[in-house]
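User: Okay, second chain of the day. Same drill as before: sequence in, structure tokens out.
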Amino acid sequence: MKNRFYAYFFSEFLRYFLIVIFATTAIIWTIQAVNFLDLVTDDGHAFRTYLYYSFLTLPKVIGKLIPFAFLISAILTVIKLEKDNELIVLWTSGLNKIHLVNLMFRISLIIMTFQMIMTCFVVPDTLNISRSLLKNSKLQFIPSLLKEKKFNDTVRGLTVFVNKKNADGTFENIFILDEGASLTNISSGGDTTTIFARRGWITEDENNLILINGNIQKTGDNKIVTIIKFEKTSINFSGLSTKTISEPKIQETPTIDLIKCLDKSNRYKQNCNRTSEYQKDIKIEINKRFGMPIYIPLIAMIICFLLTSRKDKKIYEYNKYIYFILSFIILVVSEITVRYSGFSLNYTLIYYLIPISLLPLIYFILLRTFKYENLN
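Assistant: Same drill. Structure tokens below.
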């Protein structure tokens, strides 16, 4: 009977956990996806790149929500079983409540391991892939560069301004400043190129801009300005890359590389900065990946105090709120303390000692509370 109940309890918890993690992830991911639309409208990336990049951020959202989802799922599971009087049947049949505490602890270890795998391996890899996706993505929507009465510097070293956009899709009074030799068919290395045109339009393949009645001014290293007038010319915009950050951030760096960066002999390698500020950020990121999951078993032990509730107590109806708020405060404290864990070794020890020291203490209290229960 005990094993059947354990399987039933775990299935109920898993059902709630998947529902909570799916619902919260869908809401947060949708909000983020809307913000990522700037990749298309402002940076000129393809819509396919935007979708792929958005989906690659899903593991990051899930990894952040796992502790909160565990908290909600554990409370809902206990309340559901208590409401259906299923726990009372078990207590009267002789099952000691400490067995359920142990089961909750084992489940928390599974979720803790899952989050650690997500934060240490899956999330950095997917974020790194998303960064490489933007780095290797070429500008495809040229119309995003041509915005009426707005200086657009989406492409590094290239500034585009259009005074007016007509209803037929043509543009008037076009100004282009190329300081990075981005327009290879017009500019050359070391030259600053300025282009003026009375009119222009984009070709059907959206790779070329046709300019009418203008001039090209080139300023070389010797400061000599060369002016070339034209009646009609074409500028090829295909293959341009935006100035979206392409170097991996700390949160996108593999865990093993972060650990290696802490070694002084490796601080001259790529993406390993020698500055104390960067080293502090690395320690904080490592503590996030390894430390945050440790708080999940602590949350599990606090939720187990719901098993001590009695319906004849006036405070019974408020217990679920009390333990939820207490557990939520612990999650908030963990988020706050991890931001200071990289400042010194003492702060790091405090961050890890909070769950490690409180966990056996709370378990001992639960053990004392249930010691008079009939052992199964």
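The chain has a mean pLDDT of 85.

User: Thanks, on to the next one.
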